[in-house]
Structures are given as structure tokens and as C-alpha cells.
Amino acid sequence: MGQKKNDKEEVSLFSILKSDFSSGLNDSAYEQEENKLNQALLERPSFSVKARLTLAFFILFLVSATISITAMIINSRIKKGIQLVTLADKFANEIQHVRRIEKNYFLYGSDLSEVSQHLDNAQQFLERASFELGHDIGSIELGEINHYLGGYRLLSDSLIKGGNIKDFMESKEYQEIAVRLRDYGSKMLETSLDISKKERQFIFSATENSRRIILILIAVFLFFSIFIASHIYKHIITRLNRLMVATQQFASGDFLPITPKRKYRDEFSLLVIALNHMMYELDKRQQLLIESHRLRAIGNLTAGVAHELNNPINNIILTAEVLKDGFGELSKAEIKDAINDLVNQGERAQQIVKNLLDYARESETQSDYLYINEILEETVQLVKNQIKLSKISLEENYRKTLSPIYGDRKLLVQVFLNLILNAIDAMPKGGNIILDVTESKQTGFLSVTITDTGTGISDHILNSIFNPFFTTKPTGQGTGLGLAVSRGIIEKHGGSISVKSSQGVGTTFTVHLPTVPIPADIKDKSD
Amino acid sequence: MAKRKYKLCIIDDEVVVCKRLQQFFTKAKYEVETFVDSKSAAERISEVRFDVVVTDIRMDNIDGMEILSLVQKKGEPTKVIMITGYATIEIAREAQAKGAFDFISKPFRPQELLKVIEKATKELENSGTKEE
Asked: Which CATH number does the domain housing residue B16 bear?
């Protein structure tokens, strides 16, 4: 409410004007409605578009970071694997040397001491492997190899040492050592080749996996991109479209506020509140325009009413004068006749004023089920003096059995009043006005045509006549708002208004209005 | 003043106007014919010579201006007095320019119309065109 106070001050001038018009537009009613709607819009829990997008992008980041880190881990594992394979191959190479020397030693009795060099090399590779690869990969196998290597070294040392002892070769101990040495040698070679083979297999499958991960990453990205795009579409584009449709509706005079449709409130909610406020302001201004134009129409009608009113007044004065003048001489019947005339003429004057006053006084805008014929009859009652005065004949062709329409009686009367007054203005030398009511070609609509035999409207201004402030009448006579206001009213009723004219022949205005199915209680509602 | 009864024709589509003026001017010693329907009035005018024709301007079928030109066409010195409503004063001035004797605006008292008619008959006498 506090925020509204400023607005209220701004429109206070209009409020004063409006109360002068004895208008039914109630500012506080408008405000109440608007506040209620604002509350409904703001009451929802907040989940802003910014938060949604931030969340979505954060999830995307997390997922892709996880995948990337996995890929990096796999990558470094492959790197280590390659190192292991290299070292294992080198190790195997050294061991193969060792085994050749060993073979020569056993077959030809050549020098065995050469093995220690190769064993040192192998030991180095082994140490490098466990140093560089840590305990992650093949630590069991390396431990085994280390064990065999250590054993081999010891055995080969004891063989070299045993070479100095006689008959060592024939001893049982030599035989045992020889068997164990061969066994260790072959196991070392086997294990290192095994490591190499296994690791190669691992590298192959890991490379395969990392390729798969890239594909998965692409798929995840695609999925999230689609998700975020659809989210943006759902929360931004469709909202923008909805708001665009709403503003177009506002522009065409369809003043229905935008209502909350989503569970959460966000940045758009504030925009919706601003738009709704604009709509209420527009509606108020439009009402004001209609109101001021209605007063103008009443002004136009007063000439006819004043003229028409002179007749019963004249009759009353003449009758009263005759009564006064010849009071003694008149017969009882004559006096009675004169008094009857006085009463009748008084009533006649009252009736003339009554229609106009009804129209002028009425201020509540309210919608109801209405029959178009009744609207037109009411309008004709208002303009009939003007028509008579302008030597115009009126032809009324109403279809009797038309469905009712739903709308505001006063506003619709204003439209037809305006159209008929325009027709009168178009025929300063008299002519015909034909009112036709028919079912429209478009189902669910009826059409009212108002045809005059006036001067017509030339083609080049025909397109502008519905524009506000466009007028062909001399300054001071027309506001140029009549047709603009009329179109606003008709569009507000979901209808349309169109014009056809040929110069020198006349003009036809056609009003299309939607009909409604007759509800059971229509008889009660349209009293 | 009036040695003979002047013939008065009153045309107004208001019945009450005709009725009361009939009563009033009959009492004022005029020979009065009233017409609610201007068409039958026009027929009567072509048959009979009136001294003064009082006609409303705004009427269906034949209006006051047509009555005026009808009277003028006959070439008789008949005086035509127009009755105007609120919105027809312009037409009344136009009628005067075209030769109507005077106009009287609604609402009026019968005495006012009587004065105008007396002025007209006086002019008729003065111009010496009074016959019989």
C-alpha cells in the first residue's frame, strides 16, 4: 500500500476529474484488485532465473570436471604403465643376458662372474621402477622379482666362490644350487615378461577407455546443453512470449491482468507486476477517455433535447395562458381537457429529459447478458430528437431471435450512439440511417451495420478514422476520439469494428460482437 | 380595430398548440383554421386565401419553408409568421430574408403571437390591399 501512495498522488487530478464525471471508476477498487494480484505474484517462493542458470551451469561444471579428472588419472596411469613396460623390457633384456651367461657357464664352463654386471643393471631398473612408479603398480610382481634377483645373486656368488673348491661341480650342493639358479632365472624372466605383457594389455584397454570417456563427455555435454537450453526456453523464451502476447492484448484494449502460473517467483514476476500496473493505468486512462467522450456525446444530444423540450413547454404555457385568459368563459369539459393536456405535456417533458439523464447519470460499469436489440432501442431513444431535428429518417431492421451478448450496456450504447451521431453529422441536408442487425458470417458473432446516405469518407482518410484525435470536423466540434474510443470499447468486448464508404453515396460501419450461449437464468439476469 | 374577421391559418404538428390557439384566437375574434398535418394545410392554402399563416418550421412531409414559398407563389398579400424551436432560429432568419413577416420562438404566450398577428394585419390594412 505504501508504494501505491505516490501513484495515488499522481492520479489525484484524474480522480477529481473522474468524481466530477460522477464516474463509477473506483480508484481504491482498482488498487485493491492490483494489490491482491501483486500479493499472489509475490507470495510464491523465490527461485530466480539467475539461480536456476547458476545451478545448472554449476552441475555441468561438476560433471565435466569429474570426467576430466578421471581422464587425467587414467592418462597418468597409462604413462606409468608405459614406463613400467619399458623398464620391464630392459630388465628382461638384462636377465636374458644373465641367462645366456648362465647357459654358457653350465654348458661350456665359461666365466660366470660376468652376470654380476648384468644383475646390477637389472637391479637398477628394478629400483627405478619401484622408485618411479611407487607402490601403485605391480608392486607384488616387482617384490617377487626382487626376491628372485636377490636369490639369484646369492646363488651365482656362491657358484663363483665354489669354482675354487675342487670337486664342487660334482657335489650335491652344486647340483641343488644349479637347479635353483635356473629356476630363479627362468622365473625372473617369466615374471618380467608377464608384467610387460599384462601392462601392455592394460595400456591398450586404458587407451580404449579414455576414448570412451571422451565420447561420454561429449554425450554429457550434449545432454546438459539440451537441458540448459530447454530450461532457458521454458523460463525465459516462453515467458517473454507470454508477456509479448499480454502486451499485445493490452494494446488491443483487452485489459486482463497477467496471473501467476508458476510455482516460483523470479525476475519475471517483477516485470509482470510492472506490466499489470501499466495495464491498470491504461485501463483507468481508457475509462477516463470513454467517460469524457460520453459527456461529449451527451453535449451533442442536448441540442436535440432542448429543441424537443420546447414543445411540451410551449404547450404548457399556451394551455395555462388560455386557462387564465378565459377562466370564466370556458366550459367544464374544456377546463378538464386543458388540465389533462397540462399533465400530459408535463409528463412528456419529463420523459424527454429522463432518457438523457439515465444515460448521463449511469456510471457503474458492469457486464451482463444483453440483447443487442435492446441496446439499439435504448440508443435510438437517445438520438431520436436529433434525428427528427436533422430531417433524417431511421430504418430499423432487427433480427428478433439473436443470442445475447455479454458486455457493458452503457459502453455499448455509447458506441452506437457515437456511430449514429456521426451518421447524422454526415448528412447535414437530411437522409436515411439504416440500422441492421444480423447474424455474422463468422459463427458465434452478430453484426450491427449502421448505414448512412451521407457524404461518405474519401479513401485516403478511411484508414485514419479510428486513430485518436483524427477528425474531419471543424475545430471545436469534434474531439477525434469518438471512433477511437468506440473501437476500444468494441475490442474490449472481443469484437471488431470496420467501415466501408463511397463518396457521395454513404458510409457503412459494421460492428461485430461475439454472442454467448443462452444460460438458463438469462431471463432473471437481463431484467 | 378589426372591422372584419381576419382569416388565420395555424399549422403546427403539436395538437395542443392547434387546440389552444384555436380557442384563443377564436375568442380574439379571428376566423381560425388549424392544421396538425402540413399536407392538408398546403391543400387548404391553395384553395382559400388566408390573411395570416402561422406555421411551425420543423414538420414532417412539408415544412415551414415550403409553406412559405407556397404562399408566396400564390402572389397574395398573405403574411407568413414562422414558429421556431430552439434549434431552428437560423432557418427562421433565412425565412425572414425570403419574405416571411416575422418569427416567434417557442415557447411563447398566445398574447405575444396575437401582437405579431395584429402587427401583420395592421400592415395589411395600411398597404391598402385589404379587399371586400
From this structure: 3.40.50.2300
Name the residue of chain B whose CA is nearest to A304's CA.
Answer: B87
Number of domains in chain B: 1
Query: Domain containing A128 — which CATH number?
Result: 1.20.1440.210
B87 contact partners, CB below 8 Å, separation of at least 6: A303, A304, A306, A307, A389
CB distance A310 to A349 below 8 Å = no
A416, A489 in Cβ contact below 8 A? no
Q: Residue A400 corresponds to which cell in the numbers above?
A: 428478433
SS3 A514: strand
What distance in Å separates the CA atoms of residue A64 and residue A58, rounded to the nearest whole number?
A: 10
Determine, yes or no, domain membership for A251: no
CA distance A37 to chain B (A): 52
Instruction: Give the three cell numbers for residue A443.
Output: 459463427
**How does pLDDT run across B4-63, given as a tens digit for each residue?**
789 999 999 899 999 999 999 998 999 999 999 999 999 999 999 999 999 998 887 888
Q: Is residue B80 part of a domain?
A: yes
Q: Which residues pair with A432 in a beta bridge?
A: A393
Smallest CA-to-CA distance from A216 within A318, A385, A84, A71 is with A71
Is A526 domain-assigned? yes
From the CA of A349, how many Å to the nearest CA of chain B?
Answer: 13
- Answer whether B23 sits within 8 Å of A389, measured CB to CB: no
The backbone region for A267, taken as left when phi is positive above 0, alpha when psi lies in -120 to 50, beta otherwise, is alpha
In this structure, the dihedral spanned by the alpha carbons of residues A223, A226, A227 and A229, taken in order and rounded to 10 degrees, is 160
Do the Cβ atoms of A321 and B86 come within 8 Å? no
Within-domain flag for B68: yes
- Nearest-CA distance B102 → chain A (Å): 18
In terms of C-beta density within 10 A (0-12 exposed, 13-18 middle, 19 or more buried), how is residue A515 classed? middle
Tally of domains within chain A: 2
User: Is the Cβ–Cβ distance between A408 and A286 less than 8 Å?
Assistant: no
The verdict on A341 touching B (C-beta cutoff 8 Å) is yes
Kindly state whether residue B90 falls inside one of the protein's structural domains: yes
* Chain B contact set for A338 (CB, 8 A): 20
Contact in structure between B89 and A389 (CB atoms under 8 Å):
no
pLDDT tens series, chain A, 527 aa: 444 444 433 333 333 333 333 344 456 777 788 888 888 888 888 888 888 888 888 888 888 888 888 888 888 888 888 888 888 888 889 889 888 988 888 888 888 888 888 888 888 888 888 887 766 667 787 888 888 888 888 888 888 887 777 677 777 888 888 888 888 888 888 888 888 888 899 889 988 888 888 888 888 889 888 988 888 888 788 888 988 888 888 877 777 788 877 778 888 888 888 888 888 888 888 778 887 877 777 777 777 788 788 889 999 999 999 998 887 888 889 899 999 999 999 999 988 888 777 777 666 667 888 889 999 998 998 888 888 878 888 998 887 778 889 988 888 998 999 899 889 888 888 889 999 998 888 888 999 999 999 888 888 888 888 877 777 776 656 667 788 888 888 888 888 999 998 888 889 999 999 988 765 554 444 44
Residue in B108, B97, B102, B104 with CA at minimum distance from that of residue B122: B102
Task: Cell numbers for A138, please give them.
Answer: 605391480
User: Residue A75: phi, psi to the nearest 5?
Assistant: -60, -45
Best CA proximity match to B20, nearest among B2, B32, B7, B6: B32
Residues with Cβ within 8 Å of A39's Cβ and at least 6 positions away in sequence, in order, are none
Distance of alpha carbon A56 from alpha carbon A48, whole angstroms: 12
